[in-house]
Write a sequence for this structure.
């Protein structure tokens, strides 16, 4: 049941517990218990909204920064990652295999704000060897959701 | 000028669904629960194979019976899912949708005057196809109290010395009824006793809900040799527009079907056949994803109908509900027209699927949950107003 609940709320976290219970053919209490348990176990880490900021007219800049670091003795990458993810302007930090070590996603109001963070905060960390900042120009799909307007239903209205 | 038309064709009434379609299509912003096809797009990897085949210039005819690779995959699929085996070379025919398979199966098997038993309510094509093949259609009315399953008694009662074919349309459009193994075993006994043949239209086989998976009648002892099994890609893989289905059965029947197909159609569309190979090879997860989505909608809609006090048996197949609207004192057609007029929700009158559909409407849940919710609210308001 957990997997089914997660599949549903991953797509729509606002789904009512009552409805979720109907969809899955189980009791509301059962759904509620599972949700609470998964929140406690930190399987469910949050309920977020996918916003297409572009449509609001509010300026936002998102950058994905490739960071090469020297891992620290005894702690590997975790300590460096922590120093980075504690900044509130950092959206996401991933440890990556391949040509660099950490992928840092950063959101700012302007290009300047983002580059300032990189030069002032990120590059100056002792263990950071180099950074490469990639600005996002357009989002096509995010969190499994296509950003473009939903296509119209083009099926004929009545078919046998 | 002479009358250009065949009397026989003129005498076949047009599909009952047509008239209703004309009314609905004139209405803007109606929510339609009248659609008999999935609301999903064909999964991308399947579309991609179709596109790739075009890029590679695979724009030729295939052999009449279909691409060998596709027949291999169909045989594997039927074995894997329903434990029925067919020989690639003589027992599988790829058709232009399940519809063509229904048509040519009847043509291949019927002599003038042979009777075809057609349980109704059911898909609109069986009856005219039987007539076009010079057969005599005999309707068996399925009953709500049997959850629209075919019973051995009803079958027995309809058999005459001229009966040759039984059409088995399960999982059923428009009722959503299914036949469990036990139900089919009862039917099989009668079929074998009276030496009948079965055309089993299993196009909705993958859309079966609940614990027990779909059972093909061809897998029952003694039934393989008297069954033409029809299936296709439209419903399971959301591939209606690709027009691709197949028929499987004993060589003696299939080779005659192939002959008709050869002369009338030549071969099923090549692009669709390449896409279908991919569907069968790598499409199981897609089926599961769509099936679960339908299942959630099915539970939701059933719950809502029951909340509204509309009686509806729980359908375990296809993507239709068949609620009873008798208590509102209207015919199915009146109910559907009024609902459309007052609340802009389109459902299909049960009578479009046979006279026995009177008192019922077909509600398709191949629509997004948000549309279903909106439609349910409208239906609720509609019947509340009727009660006043």
């Amino acid at each position: 049941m957990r997997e089914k609940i997660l599949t549903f709320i991953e797509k729509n976290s606002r789904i009512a517990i009552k409805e979720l219970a109907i969809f899955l053919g189980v009791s509301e209490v059962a759904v509620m218990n599972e949700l609470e348990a998964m929140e406690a176990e930190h399987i469910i880490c949050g309920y977020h909204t996918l916003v297409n900021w572009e449509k609001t007219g509010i300026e936002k800049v998102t950058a994905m920064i490739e960071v090469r670091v020297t891992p620290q003795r005894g702690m590997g990458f975790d300590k460096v990652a922590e120093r980075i993810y504690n900044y509130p302007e950092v959206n996401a930090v991933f440890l990556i295999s391949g040509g660099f070590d950490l992928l840092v996603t950063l959101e700012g109001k302007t290009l300047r704000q983002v580059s300032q963070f990189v030069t002032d905060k990120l590059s100056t960390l002792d263990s950071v060897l180099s950074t490469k900042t990639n600005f996002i120009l357009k989002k096509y799909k995010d969190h499994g959701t296509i950003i473009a307007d939903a296509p119209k239903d083009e099926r004929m209205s009545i078919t046998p | 000028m002479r009358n250009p038309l065949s009397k026989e064709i003129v005498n076949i009434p047009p599909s009952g669904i047509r008239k209703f379609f004309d009314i609905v299509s004139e209405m803007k912003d109606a929510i339609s629960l009248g659609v008999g096809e999935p609301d999903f797009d064909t999964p991308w990897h399947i579309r991609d194979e179709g596109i790739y085949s075009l890029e590679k210039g695979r724009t030729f005819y295939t052999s009449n019976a279909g691409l060998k690779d596709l027949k291999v995959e169909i045989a594997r699929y039927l074995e894997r899912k329903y434990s029925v085996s067919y020989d690639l070379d003589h027992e599988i025919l790829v058709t232009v949708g399940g519809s063509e398979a229904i048509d040519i199966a009847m043509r291949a098997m019927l002599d003038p005057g042979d009777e075809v038993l057609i349980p109704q309510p059911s898909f609109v094509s069986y009856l005219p196809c039987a007539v076009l093949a010079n057969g005599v259609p005999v309707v068996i009315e399925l009953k709500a109290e049997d959850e629209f399953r075919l019973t051995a008694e009803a079958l027995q009662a309809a058999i005459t010395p001229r009966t040759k074919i039984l059409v088995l349309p399960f999982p059923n459009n428009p009722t959503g009824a299914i036949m469990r193994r036990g139900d089919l075993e009862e039917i099989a006994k009668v079929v074998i006793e009276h030496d009948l043949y079965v055309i089993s239209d299993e196009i909705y086989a993958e859309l079966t809900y609940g614990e027990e998976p779909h059972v093909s009648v061809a897998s029952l002892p003694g039934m393989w040799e008297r069954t033409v099994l029809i299936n296709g890609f439209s419903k399971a893989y959301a591939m209606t527009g690709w027009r691709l289905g197949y028929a499987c059965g004993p060589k003696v029947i299939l080779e005659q079907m192939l002959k008709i197909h050869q002369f009338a159609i030549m071969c099923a569309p090549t692009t669709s056949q390449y896409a279908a190979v991919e569907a069968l090879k790598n499409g199981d997860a897609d089926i599961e994803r769509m099936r679960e989505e339908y299942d959630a909608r099915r539970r939701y809609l059933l719950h809502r109908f029951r909340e509204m006090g509309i009686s509806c048996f729980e359908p375990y197949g296809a993507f239709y509900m068949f609620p009873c609207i008798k208590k509102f004192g209207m015919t199915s057609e009146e109910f559907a027209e009024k609902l459309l007029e007052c609340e802009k929700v389109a459902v299909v009158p049960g009578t479009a699927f046979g006279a026995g559909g009177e008192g019922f409407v077909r509600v398709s849940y191949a629509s997004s949950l948000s549309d279903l919710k909106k439609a349910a609210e409208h239906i609720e308001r509609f019947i509340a107003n009727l009660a006043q």
Chain B has a mean pLDDT of 96.
